[in-house]
Amino acid sequence: MPLIQKLPSLLINQIAAGEVIERPASVVKELLENSLDAGATRIDIDIEAGGKRLIRVRDNGYGIEREQLALALDRHATSKIASLDDLERVGSFGFRGEALPSIASVSNLRLISQAQHASEAWEIDGQNFTIAPARHAQGATVEVRDLFFNVPARRKFLRVDKTEFSHIEQMVKRLALGCADAEIRLSHNQQAIFVIPVGAESQAIRVNAVCGKGLLEQSIYFDESGAGLRLSGWVGLPTFSRSQADMQYFYVNRRMVRDKVVTHAVRQSYQDVLFHGRHPAYVLYLEMDPTLVDVNAHPAKYEVRFRDSQLVHDFIYKTLHKVLASARAGHVNSGLKENAFERRIDLSNGWATPQNNSLNLLNNAVHESLATYQALYSTASSNTGFNHIGQSYPSNPNLNPNLNRDTPPLGYALAQLHGIYILAENAQGLVMIDMHAAHERITYERLKVEHDAAAMLSMPLLLPLTLNVSQREADLTEQYQTTFEEYGFELHRTGVETITVRRVPSLLKEADIDALVRDVLADLAEHGRSQRIENERNELLSTMACHASIRANRKLTLPEMNALLRDMEITERSGQCNHGRPTWIQLNIDQLDKLFMRGQ
Ligand code: ADP
Ligand code: MG
């Protein structure tokens, strides 16, 4: 029979290292977080050979006292929490007291520090724990050499220097985006790679440094609070989508997380506006009472557990949905834009919802513009004067030839190009509009509003549909009965494992009801909510909108074109068509001048 033995502490640390120290970038994460926890305002990271030869992180934080140096390298020793109560409200990145001993067990580690108010510096050797005098300004340096020298299995899996370094670079950027108060410098093989600065506007500068200026230019900045939560940051325009999910930064109380609840909520808010297969870009900060989120769910702390995940989900979803709805044509440019900083919006009273509640405006617009649209695609030669809704703007630009600040955002139509595009002139220059794409979105949004207003009309099934489901699904049916009713379904549990559908939403009478109900139940089981009925409905409305919208080669009169522009300006999400493509592009006079090399 094999003997049960206590493991030696080196091996215990090596096992722990297996969990959190996967590659040089993981070491950088732990050291950088320690420096931030120590209140550093300047952090220098020096890397050699992709981090395989050397990782050195030096900071100017509060440092470690001589007597504490050995403890810092001891397992389960931390200065950050002392009780379960502390753990529940922890605000620091670290609290497990595992990183330094783990790293020291798989590398040659040296820790040098001069503590705050101390007069000399000391260093400790991570292998034999000997302490010797050293030279160091206030703060600490951790030097990690020859990572995994004693763990060949791990060492074998490391990639070429360049790859390992790019992981480090990504890691540093991710961490830098989450904190605002330390200047961070990174160098590789004695070459400076980047400096992430602090100062006024520092957060935008950091976003710029990490994501490139594309995101700042193609995103909406917002800051929204409610239900004890605060969400702020940059949410990428749907037209700035990416082929990979590589520009998604989400922070909970400054900690970067990859969380299922969060990802699902964000994804859902882009539902209606993203080109399929594309990924949104964002940098988002969620702040909340630390006792309502458990960060001790994962050794590397990438996952968190929200006490009320439904609340967090709904807040993120509703906020982003609202922000994205504000991406109306003429307001946030979907094309080229010079200055991103002017695009900060305040959802409560900024220009995103100018003087009117956008939904009321939309509702009025729906009714007033109905005649316009009927005319638009029923009468071939429509010279009828348009009774369009942008009442504040003169409908005929000839009456008001000067383009000034009263000019509507998308300006006035000049001509139609190849039956596809509308060319218009506004205060900034030239606007080009894809008329089918634009009209499709307007029709779609209008249909949605109409259907929301009329609630979901339902109709009885000639033959009630009986479905065999699991007991859990039958339970859910009972539990969510009213939710189903709101969507126009009438369904009851008729047995331990059977449910019967009697009425369905009239709009979805052609849908595969069996599959739809099952999918909704699966969603309810997994997430406690489902968007399927709404999605199914939206898909149908979107198809209807597409068919009902102006086709290419349809000749429009100038008043018709102007009516379309005015509608775009007030329609939510009109910056993109129903498939996420842009509906309009602005070319400023400056940009046109550049094209013609004017003034160069
Ligand atoms: P944790 O961060 O979970 O507490 P670590 O093993 O990363 O555990 O660090 C152990 C302790 O060493 C920390 O609690 C902290 O007191 C101290 N320490 C580590 N790095 C630094 C640093 N750069 N500056 C000051 N103290 C540090
Ligand atoms: Mg730590």
Attribute tags:
19 helices; about 600 residues; about 20% strand; binds adenosine-5'-diphosphate; 5-stranded mixed beta sheet; binds magnesium ion; alpha+beta; 8-stranded mixed beta sheet; 22 strands
Kindly describe this structure.
With 600 residues, the protein is of the alpha+beta class. It is built from 19 helices and 22 strands. It has an eight-stranded mixed sheet. Helix 1 crosses helix 5 (99-105), helix 7 runs antiparallel to helix 8 (202-211) and helix 14 (471-479) packs across helix 16 (513-527). The protein starts with 8 loop residues before the first helix and ends in a 5-residue tail after the last helix. The model is unreliable at 333-400 (pLDDT under 50). Bound molecules: adenosine-5'-diphosphate (ADP) and magnesium ion (MG). Magnesium ion binds next to helix 2.
Largest sheet: 8 strands, mixed
What is the radius of gyration computed over CA atoms, rounded to a whole number of angstroms? 30 Å
Report the end-to-end length measured between terminal Cα atoms: 87 Å
Bound molecules: adenosine-5'-diphosphate, magnesium ion
Strand order of the largest sheet: 5-4-3-6-2-1-7-8
Number of helices: 19
Helix/strand structural class: alpha+beta
Tell me the number of strands.
Answer: 22
- Quaternary structure type: single chain
Which range does the strand content fall in? Answer: 15-25%
Identify low-pLDDT runs: 333-400
What's the shape? globular
Q: How helical, in percent, are the residues?
A: 25-40%
